[in-house]
């Protein structure tokens, strides 16, 4: 069974690049462009990893997505992402249940991103 990754990201270009990269690794990838779609996706099934943008343009925010995932699937590994370098936002994400945090675009460089995802996949396999 393929590991599963849910991407909750409002920017289509970022979503598509990440999806393509992860599918090249043989992973099953699902996408949502906002929290409302993300919540529907987590009701469908459990995801091994969720990549969640913290600043989503909707009624709900990334922090709400993290809380919803954590409530429904406590073992899902959550990687929060944001272009905002605000340490308070990072800490809020971690406090809500995120396993780690990436800063866009720096941490989305493929070498950094690859290392982070591979590490999380190994951690989840343990």
Fold-level CATH name:
Rossmann fold
User: In percent terms, what proportion of residues is strand?
Assistant: 15-25%
Supply the CATH architecture.
Answer: 3-Layer(aba) Sandwich
Counting DSSP E segments of at least 2 residues, the number of strands comes to: 5
Task: Give unreliable regions as ranges.
Answer: none
- Quote the average pLDDT: 88
How is the biggest beta sheet arranged? 5 strands, parallel
CATH class: Alpha Beta
CATH superfamily membership: Response regulator
Radius of gyration: 13 Å
Kindly report how far apart the N and C termini lie.
16 Å
Q: Quickly count the domains.
A: 1
**Secondary structure: helix percent:** 40-55%
State the order of secondary-structure elements, H for helix, E for strand.
EHEHEHEHEH
Shape: globular
Please describe what this structure looks like.
With 126 residues, this protein is an alpha/beta fold. It has one domain: 3-Layer(aba) Sandwich (Rossmann fold), CATH 3.40.50. The protein has five helices and five strands, in the order βαβαβαβαβα. It has helices at residues 12-24, 35-44, 62-72, 87-96, 110-125; strands at residues 4-8, 28-32, 49-53, 77-82, 100-103. A five-stranded parallel β-sheet has the order 2-1-3-4-5, sandwiched between helices. β3, α3 and β4 (77-82) form a beta-alpha-beta unit. α2 packs parallel to α3. It starts with a strand and ends with a helix. The mean pLDDT is 88.
């Amino acid at each position: 069974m393929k590991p599963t990754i849910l991407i909750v990201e409002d920017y289509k270009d970022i979503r598509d690049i990440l999806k393509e990269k992860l599918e090249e690794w043989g992973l099953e990838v699902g996408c949502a462009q906002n929290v409302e779609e993300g919540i529907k996706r987590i009701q469908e099934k459990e995801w091994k990893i969720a990549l969640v943008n913290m600043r989503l343009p909707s009624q709900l925010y990334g922090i709400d997505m993290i809380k919803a995932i954590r409530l429904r699937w406590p073992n899902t590994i959550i990687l929060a992402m944001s272009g905002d370098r605000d340490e308070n936002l990072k800490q809020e994400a971690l406090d809500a249940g995120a396993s780690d945090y990436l800063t866009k675009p720096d941490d989305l460089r493929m070498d950094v991103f690859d290392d982070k995802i591979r590490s999380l996949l190994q951690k989840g396999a343990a």
